Amino acid sequence: MDNQSEPPLGSLKKKEEVRQMFNDIAFRYDFLNHVLSFQIDKRWRKKLIRILSEHKPHNLLDVATGTGDLAITASSYLDIQKIVGIDISEEMLKFAQKKIYDRGLQEIIHVRVADSENMPFEKESFDACMVAFGVRNFENLQQGIDEMFRVLNPGGIALILEFSNPQKTPFKQLYTFYFRFILPAVGRWISKHNKAYSYLPDSVVNFPQGEKFLDIMQKAGFESRSFKPLTFGIATIYQGTKPH
C-alpha cells in the first residue's frame, strides 16, 4: 500500500478511520497478531471460549469479528448451532469468509458487514455475545455495550477480551517499551501502514480498564460483572450477564 494515500490522523470520524485502517492492514492482520503477541493471543481466545462453554450457548454473536479467529475457535470447542460475526471492515470479512470456507464451517458461521453500535438484530436474539480486541475501537463505547445487552437473551452472557496495561514492575516497564517502540516499528514495516500499529498502544492507554469498564457494563444493565487479567495484565477478560 502507498502510505501517501492514508488520510491524516483525525481527519475522519473514528469509526470511518478504523474501518479504513483495518481494510488496509487486513492482508497482514493475522500474521502480525500472532507474531507480535508471540502466539499468546491464541491462548487468550481459548480461555474466553472455555469460560463461554460453561454457559452452553446455542447461538452466538461475535462482535468485531475481524478475520474470524474467535468465531472459528468457538466452533471448534463448543456444541454450537450458529455463530454470527459482524464487522465494519469489508476486507477483514473477506479473509474471515475464506477461512470459514476452507474449514467447511459455512453452515455454522455467518459473517456480515454491520455496525457494532447499531446492530441489525432484534432484541433478545442471541444466547451469548463475545468480542476480542474490538471494543476499544468503538466510536461510542457505551452505545456498543448497550447494543450487546439489547441483543442478548435474558440470562445471556457477554465476554469481552481486550488489551490492558500491566501494573507490576518490572514487567510493566518492559512491556511498555515493547508496546510503545518495538511493536509499532515491526507493525509498520510488515503492514506498510504508518498509523495502524501506533494507533494500537494509544487506543489501549486511552481505554477505560478494570473497574471503569465494569461501570460501563453496569450502566448497560449487566449483572454478575467481573474481570480477569491475563499474562501479567497484558489482556483482560470482562464478563457480565443479562438478568432473567
Please explain how this structure is put together:
The relative contact order is 0.15. Helix 3 links the parallel strand 1 and strand 2. Helix 1 crosses helix 6, helix 2 packs across helix 3 and helix 6 packs antiparallel against helix 7. The protein has a 7-stranded mixed beta sheet, sandwiched between helices. It has 244 residues and is an alpha/beta fold. The chain has one domain: Vaccinia Virus protein VP39 (Rossmann fold), CATH 3.40.50. Helices cover 45% and strands 20% of the residues. It contains 8 helices and 7 strands; from the N terminus they run ααβαβαββαβαααββ. The N terminus is likely disordered.
Q: How large, in whole angstroms, is the Cα Rg? A: 17 Å
Oligomer: single chain
Spatial order of the strands forming the largest sheet: 3-2-1-4-5-7-6
Structural class: alpha/beta
By DSSP (H or I, 4+ residues per run), the number of helices equals 8
Helix/strand order, N-terminal first: HHEHEHEEHEHHHEE
